[in-house]
């Protein structure tokens, strides 16, 4: 039987991979995508980590837990009272699983719509041959001139402490906890840790976060991080910074974590469940890089240039498996850009206008440079800030937490960074992304009419604040 031949083969069906496959097919390439994720019935579960055990299910749980917290603690302010409020964790998880399935099925539909051939199973290099590559696709071997590797990343485990997904949990196990733990521990105060900690804290868990770094949310603008730390502490998250984790013991009774706090005192944390959230590692195990000589760096990531080209002709790599931020939307943008480059077009990804979001309550979102980065780089800048406390829509929502902050070039007024902590920050940041992509000035945003009453008026007012002329504060 002859080998099936394709113009483009994508290994990995996560956000980067499936989007790359669809865009390549749209551009007239005969395209295949290989992905090994399985659902609970053994069928395909397209969407990668993001859809199956990451972005999508975590947002579903965050929404459910937010409803529960609102009903218990905030609805009374609106004149709404309820007695004997209960949470059915099993039903909450079932809803989460349904949301995931809808996204899985949606990608299957998109592949059919765009005539992308799908292979369910592991994809790996077999050999370089005839100016292209033989690729194992599940049980078959296929051939392509162009290959896009989009195999994503895996949760990083602590040395000597493997995930059992029962008591010591990665993001996967954290999304499948069957009942609210009385005590929950988290190692790592990053995005995943804070989001999952927020879910179970709202549902009644006593949550302790152990962070090795001396600063909280070091990648976030310092003023936003300070505000977030204050708010999370008030909500009940016990966040301990500058700790050194020692021996971890796991048993039927739970998990015991020995650690040294920032003052050098030896302590022990006893919890029912422990979520380890200390970053992610590129997923290249089983890819067959040795068969073709694909170059990896010392982290295990695939080495690529600015255009996502590897050291092999016709082989590209995108998303979490290469350099740059491990964000689903970054992977998508690279996937589109690579598909367009293969077709002879000029795909483009601007790393400086990739937004970041933490879906806690309040949400945190930002794009561009932080104030500490600008100081370190010696860039002269102006800052403007506006609190949601002075925003009419935020008052009506009953959530006036946080602020919008603009950073602009001191000479040209070009927007260098925008940082938001507050309600719907994940949606509000898009205006800043568009503005920065078009190299807008703070004055440009300040002069645009924003709907009243809306949260977006806080963005306008923060832009006005750069020139010290806010109208409502």
TrEMBL record:
Entry-linked Pfam families: Pyr_redox_2 (PF07992), Pyr_redox_dim (PF02852)
InterPro entries: Class-I_Pyr_Nuc-Dis_Oxidored, FAD/NAD-bd_sf, FAD/NAD-binding_dom, FAD/NAD-linked_Rdtase_dimer_sf, Lipoamide_DH, Pyr_nuc-diS_OxRdtase, Pyr_nucl-diS_OxRdtase_dimer
Keywords (A to Z) from UniProt: Cytoplasm, FAD, Flavoprotein, NAD, Nucleotide-binding, Oxidoreductase, Redox-active center
Its EC number(s): 1.8.1.4
UniProt signal peptide: none
Record domain FAD/NAD(P)-binding: where: 6-335
Disulfide topology: 50-55
Catalytic activity: N(6)-[(R)-dihydrolipoyl]-L-lysyl-[protein] + NAD(+) = N(6)-[(R)-lipoyl]-L-lysyl-[protein] + NADH + H(+)
GO cellular component: cytoplasm
Residues the entry annotates as binding NAD(+): 188-195, 211, 279
Cofactors named for this entry: FAD
Tagged with keyword Iron: no
Enzyme active site: 452
Cofactor: binding details: Binds 1 FAD per subunit.
Subcellular location: Cytoplasm
Pyridine nucleotide-disulphide oxidoreductase dimerisation domain mapped to chain residues: 354-463
Note: The active site is a redox-active disulfide bond.
NCBIfam families, sorted: lipoamide_DH
Listed name of the protein: Dihydrolipoyl dehydrogenase
Organism: Roseateles puraquae
Gene name linked to the record: lpdA
